[in-house]
């Protein structure tokens, strides 16, 4: 099966998604054993959907930042994140 080279570009939570699939596979698809992976994936999706919405509201295109810029955006958020 050919690798989808645009997967990471289009899905900023690809790593979290793959880890949740791997957990399911490893645990015979027992969803209860993978709740932490689901929570992590959902938090990731929530964060990037907010970034996308904020960029759209401010007229910044593309709405989803380039792969190279994502780490700096996450780091900036972590500095301003309320505790």
UniProtKB/TrEMBL annotation:
Annotated compartments: Mitochondrion intermembrane space
Keyword list (alphabetical) reads: Disulfide bond, Mitochondrion
Question: Does rRNA-binding count among this protein's keywords?
Answer: no
Under Pfam families, the record lists:
COX6B
Q: Name one GO cellular component term.
A: mitochondrial intermembrane space
Question: InterPro entries from the entry?
Answer: COX23, COX6B-like, Cys_alpha_HP_mot_SF
Establish whether keyword Secreted is in the entry: no
GO process terms (BP): mitochondrial respiratory chain complex assembly
Q: Which PANTHER family match?
A: COILED-COIL-HELIX-COILED-COIL-HELIX DOMAIN-CONTAINING PROTEIN 7 (PTHR46811)
Tell me its family.
Belongs to the CHCHD7 family.
Protein's name according to its UniProt entry: Coiled-coil-helix-coiled-coil-helix domain-containing protein 7
Q: Which organism is it from?
A: Anopheles christyi
